[in-house]
Write a structure and sequence with these properties.
By secondary structure, the protein is of the alpha/beta class. The protein has three domains: about 160 residues, FAD/NAD(P)-binding domain (3-Layer(bba) Sandwich), CATH 3.50.50.60; about 110 residues, 3-Layer(bba) Sandwich (FAD/NAD(P)-binding domain); about 100 residues, 2-Layer Sandwich (Enolase-like, domain 1). Helices cover about 30% and strands about 25% of the residues. The strands form six sheets. Strands 1, 2, 3, 4, 5, 6 and 18 form a seven-stranded mixed β-sheet that branches. Helix 1 runs parallel beside helix 9, helix 3 packs antiparallel against helix 4 and helix 3 crosses helix 7.
């Protein structure tokens, strides 16, 4: 007889969701993590990052409205900010473990690895299960150049007790673009080195370009078309050698060049579990294609966007299938938000994706920097592009850059989920004057 009906590996949002759903379905469930309970989002990602971003937004707002009714300087007190951040993160491990225990889940600690199709060793202790759910999240991608051991992770940045005067971010994705404006607000001189032509791949490229120019105007050195060849320590400083032959001095270099599924320690081969660069190979039910007793969810699965809400949905899908259901993961309408300055948000398709799907869409790029919504908060830049399916009149995609973008994007997500047309959305008597009211002018 198996020790447990199900063992869940990973205690982030996806793993917690699956474990609780399963124990509510009368299964004997264990959950294991090699680190403190809570996962990346709550401890080393979304939540602590947003605390820092919120403080940086206040600095940006004050700077943008100086001379427009506000005077004086606002500064970030980094040690005090980090102490405030810890009030969000420090209680998480104990709170999550207590919550899981109260639900009736056995909580294990240690490194889990497969020793067979349904057997695991957790720090050398053998366990068996009828089903195993892998929810191990992601880790920084290997950089593959000399001196990568000198590059700090985003986790290390978020835990830094002090910030140095010169910081270079490698890569132009979420991590770099979000943390760069936090570091700049704290007074550091900041550079971003990005190999591609446009930062924030996957977002509307025109809005991403507008954001980039705004960063440059605000003093952040954003370099595109330039990769990193090596990082070296010279005396008391670091030097980044770029592929264009230039050298960039820094006191801290931060990894923002993407993440990969965190699967290396699991010994998936021993479990007969096929996997690739995007994660464990799963079918639409989130079951391993090579081992029918193994399931993968969240960043560990090779399906869906690497977002916390997606992992949560996948946790429910996998649990329902283990309980005998026939649920299929549908990559439902899910907003993506880069908490930059200002936020860049999207939901649905880009123009390029719409063309690939054979959709005729109508949508224009709107520069709303001079609209009252932006001017009254001192925003340096704002814009939008809303794509409407010409055949049905429904929203095919929405792309927003601006002070309220991270909230207004949820309105478009609801409209798309409900099948509302652009005319339906335009007819809503939105509160005025608000960011929501701007929808009337974007369609």
């Amino acid at each position: 007889m198996a020790d447990f009906d199900v063992i869940v590996i990973g205690t982030g949002a996806a793993g917690q969701t699956a474990a609780v759903e399963l124990v509510h379905g009368a299964r004997r469930v264990a959950i294991v993590d090699r680190r403190e309970y809570g996962g990346t989002c709550a401890l080393r990602g979304c939540e602590p990052k947003k605390v820092l971003v919120a403080a940086a937004e206040v600095v940006a707002r004050a700077a943008g409205q100086r001379g427009k009714g506000l005077s004086g300087e606002v500064h970030l007190d980094w040690p005090a900010l980090m102490a405030f951040k810890r009030t969000f993160t420090d209680p998480v491990p104990q709170g999550v473990e207590a919550y899981l225990k109260q639900a009736g889940i056995e909580t294990l600690h240690g490194e889990a690895r497969f020793t067979g199709p349904t057997t695991l060793a957790v720090d050398g202790v053998a366990h068996t299960a009828a089903d195993v759910v892998v929810a191990t999240g992601s880790r920084p991608a290997p950089l593959g150049f000399e001196g990568e051991e000198l590059v700090a992770s985003s986790e290390e940045f978020l835990a830094a007790e002090t910030l140095p005067s010169r910081i270079v971010f490698i890569g132009g994705g979420y991590i770099s673009m979000e943390l760069a404006h936090v570091a700049a607000a704290a007074g550091s001189k900041v550079s971003i080195c990005h190999r591609g032509a446009v930062v924030l791949k996957g977002f509307d490229p025109d809005l991403a370009a507008m954001l980039t120019e705004s960063y440059r105007a605000g003093g952040i050195d954003v370099r595109t078309h330039v990769g990193v060849r090596a990082v070296r320590r010279e005396a008391e400083a670091l030097v980044i050698e770029l592929e264009d032959g230039s050298r960039l001095p820094a006191d801290m270099v931060v990894h923002g060049a993407g993440r990969v599924p965190d699967l290396a320690a699991l010994d998936l081969d021993a479990g007969g579990v096929d996997f690739g660069a995007r994660g464990i190979d799963v079918d639409g039910h989130l079951r391993s294609v090579s081992n029918q007793r193994v399931w993968a969810i969240g960043d560990a699965a090779g399906r869906g966007l690497p977002l916390t809400p997606v992992g949560t949905v996948q946790g429910r899908v996998a649990a329902r299938n283990i309980l005998g259901g026939d649920a299929v993961f549908d990559p439902v309408v899910t907003p993506s938000i880069a908490f930059t300055a200002p936020p860049l948000a999207m939901v649905g398709l880009t123009e390029e994706q719409a063309a690939e799907h054979g959709l005729q869409v109508e949508g224009r790029l709107v520069d709303s920097t001079e609209w009252a919504t932006s001017r009254r908060v001192g925003a340096r830049v704002a814009g939008a592009r809303v794509l409407v399916d010409a055949a049905s009149g429904r929203i095919a995609g929405a792309h927003l850059l601006g002070h309220h973008a991270d909230e207004v994007i949820n309105i478009f997500a609801v409209a798309m989920t409900a099948g509302m047309t652009a005319a339906d959305l335009k007819a809503v008597p939105w509160g005025y004057p608000t960011g929501g009211w701007d929808i009337v002018y974007l369609i």
